[in-house]
Write a structure and sequence with these properties.
The protein has one domain: Alpha-Beta Plaits. Helix content is 31%, strand content 29%. The protein has an eight-stranded antiparallel barrel, surrounded by four helices. The longest helix is centred in the N-terminal third of the chain and has 19 residues.
């Protein structure tokens, strides 16, 4: 399974309300019409919250699209029907710089309880890149095999997924990030307790200095599950 992130920069002259309405009512149907996605989620940035140690998220949110495999994702996202429709629609709600695409594979570290389509839960999403002197492959190996084992047992953390950029099929030189991390907590207060817990402060955050470079970004988000079988 391939999970594709589309990081969306809001057009400056649009209010958040108009942006989210267009994203949900116009862009989402376009995606569902032209792509054979298995799941489809909007992660809407909640800018009133910040995450210590991470730079503010410079996007209004992220489209998240699941496909059977990389070949299917690439073929459909580059198909003429979707490209034409997407190209015409992006100018209606996105900044001229356009979206940033990340093709990833999930590594589920903490699966947690099942999440249904209407489950109310707070999501934290962060984008990270290797530190100077390390390669993308070294970053992903450390993240998966050395950092991930530190995470289970963190208070208030219900689910944790690492999304590793597909290095063998997607040129990491064309993206700013090597991976996307996702955390789920009951609510914002639970996340704040999680983020300030001794396990995270004394073990996990210091360990990130071993493999994560500067300028990591993060957001607290509201998940809107468009297609969630």
């Amino acid at each position: 399974m391939i999970k594709v992130f589309q990081l969306l920069p809001k057009r400056a002259d649009l209010s958040e309300e108009r942006f989210y309405r267009h994203w949900n009512e116009v862009h989402a149907p376009l995606v569902l019409e032209h792509l054979s996605v298995k799941r489809y989620v909007h992660s809407r940035c909640l800018p009133q919250y910040c995450i210590p140690q991470l730079a503010p998220f410079p996007y209004a949110g992220a489209d998240e699209l699941w496909f059977d495999d990389f070949e299917t994702a690439k073929r459909e996202l580059e198909g003429p029907a979707y490209l034409e429709g997407r190209g015409k629609d992006e100018a209606n709600f996105l900044d001229a710089a356009g979206p940033l695409w990340l093709f990833t594979r999930e590594n589920v570290v903490i699966s947690g309880p099942p999440i249904e389509k209407n489950t109310q839960i707070t999501k934290i999403l962060f984008c990270v890149k290797h530190k100077p002197g390390r390669s993308s492959a070294e970053f992903q190996d450390y993240w998966r095999n050395r950092h991930a084992p530190l995470v289970p047992g963190t208070p208030e953390l219900d689910r944790y997924v690492q999304c590793h950029v597909v290095l063998d099929t997607f040129d990491p030189g064309q993206t700013n990030y090597d991976g996307v991390g996702e955390l789920w907590c009951k609510d914002v207060a639970a996340f704040e307790r999680c983020w300030s817990s001794p396990q995270l402060v004394k073990e996990q955050l210091p360990d990130t200095l071993n493999f994560v470079g500067p300028n990591a970004i993060g957001m607290i988000a509201e998940e809107v599950r468009i297609l969630w079988p």
